[in-house]
Write a sequence for this structure.
């Protein structure tokens, strides 16, 4: 730490001075910042709340400056206000501002800070003022980066969470009968989804002691060789566990595609509709049908 | 029982006889020498007794590799030659996924959810030799 402080020499001392100046003029700068749209529109309860938020950011900036890490986005000083900045950028983003516009609003904070800093260093020689302003500029640039970073990581987190939710929502395993489970597949079947389908289906086979598993592809728009491969894998895994797998919902168009692509579905049992697949499973289980349901269900 | 060859290690996996079915419960890791010993034991038991079915319970096997997959297939094929049916019971989901990812779908192997359904399966679809003596050609491989 010592070495690096000496290495950056002048720069570090200007940063230190900026830090002290920021602490000294904390009240005035905070009052000015509280009126900027960035703070005013986020902290709407009272002006005092906005001023407090400004002070928290200023304290963080001062701490970072005093530590001599004006260009370090990961400086410990920023940790305290990261959550607050994330809240601010998220709330500004909700009003329809692009990340660039939010960054512009953060940059706008610089002018009032510069004004107060110039006043603070009035008696100092020009070189000192110049150094201090340079350090402040770098510091504000870093703040802008931190805001951008929190905003972006927020977005990435949201996307991840939604992707996970989509995976869960899209693949429910339904118990149709004692010993018969079904998965209605909806949407395109990619590797990640087929993995989830396979796992949840196999878990359900164990939990329900299911001898028959039905994969319903009515909601799958197209079947290509990759989708067929995923289906085959799932069928093979279910078979290894001792359950028979039936693929249902094979529409005429899909059947034609499968034949034209020359896909070999091996020994997979396929049926046109879920009802046919259920009838197949029930017959395999030895479940009897009454005379009315016999005509209705076992039509094939 | 006939004397065991000296090159085989001590028995690690016991082979239990329940009437005409042999029950083998594999626990944990199955190493090369144990697997070889197990194959030998199962086939010897089938030859010595009127067993027509073999149930291999792998519900306590958590980790699987291509080796275990091959051993299971080999036991089944060997038993088939001696006119006995093999059912592998209780494979865990993770094991099934691993085998499929390894490309080992073991298509010739019969499988069941647990030992109980494996026994039921053997009772309902007995090995051809038990059903029709001397008529192996009538053997059908239809599980449905």
């Amino acid at each position: 730490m010592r070495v690096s402080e000496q290495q950056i020499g002048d720069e570090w001392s200007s940063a230190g001075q900026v830090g002290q100046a920021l602490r000294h003029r904390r009240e005035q700068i905070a009052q000015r910042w509280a009126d900027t749209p960035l703070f005013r529109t986020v902290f709407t309860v009272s002006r005092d709340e906005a001023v407090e938020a400004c002070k928290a950011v200023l304290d963080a900036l001062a701490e970072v400056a005093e530590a001599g890490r004006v260009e370090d986005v990961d400086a410990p000083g920023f940790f305290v206000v990261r959550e607050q900045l994330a809240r601010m950028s998220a709330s500004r983003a909700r009003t329809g501002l692009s990340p660039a516009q939010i960054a512009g609003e953060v940059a706008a904070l610089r002018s009032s800070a510069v004004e107060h800093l110039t006043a603070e260093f009035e008696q100092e020689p020009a070189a000192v003022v110049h150094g201090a302003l340079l350090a402040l500029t770098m510091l504000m640039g870093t703040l802008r980066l931190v805001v951008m970073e929190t905003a972006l990581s927020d977005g990435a987190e949201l996307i991840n969470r939604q992707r996970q939710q989509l995976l869960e929502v899209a693949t429910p395993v339904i118990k149709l009968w004692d010993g018969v489970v079904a998965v209605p597949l909806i949407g395109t079947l990619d590797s990640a989804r087929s993995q989830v389908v396979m796992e949840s289906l196999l878990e359900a086979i164990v939990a329900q002691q299911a001898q028959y598993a039905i994969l319903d592809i009515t909601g799958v728009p197209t079947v290509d060789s990759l989708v067929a491969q995923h289906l085959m894998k799932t069928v093979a895994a279910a078979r290894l566990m001792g359950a028979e797998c039936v693929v249902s919902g094979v529409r005429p168009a899909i059947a034609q595609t499968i034949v034209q692509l020359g896909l070999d579905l091996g020994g997979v049992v396929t049926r046109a509709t879920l009802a046919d697949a259920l009838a197949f499973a029930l017959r395999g289980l030895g479940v009897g049908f009454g005379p009315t349901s016999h005509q209705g269900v076992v039509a094939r | 029982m006939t004397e065991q060859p000296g090159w085989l290690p001590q028995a690690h996996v016991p082979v239990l006889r329940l009437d005409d079915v042999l029950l083998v419960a594999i626990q944990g890791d199955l190493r090369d020498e144990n697997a070889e010993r197990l194959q030998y034991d199962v086939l010897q038991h089938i030859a010595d007794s009127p067993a027509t079915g073999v149930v291999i319970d792998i519900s306590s096997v958590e980790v699987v590799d291509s080796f275990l997959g091959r051993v299971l297939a080999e036991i089944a094929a060997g038993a088939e030659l001696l006119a006995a049916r093999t059912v592998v019971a209780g494979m865990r989901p993770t094991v099934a996924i691993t085998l499929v990812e390894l490309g080992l779908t073991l298509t010739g192997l019969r499988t069941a959810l647990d030992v109980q359904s494996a026994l039921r399966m053997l009772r309902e679809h007995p090995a051809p030799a038990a059903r029709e003596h001397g008529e192996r050609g009538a053997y059908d491989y239809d599980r449905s």
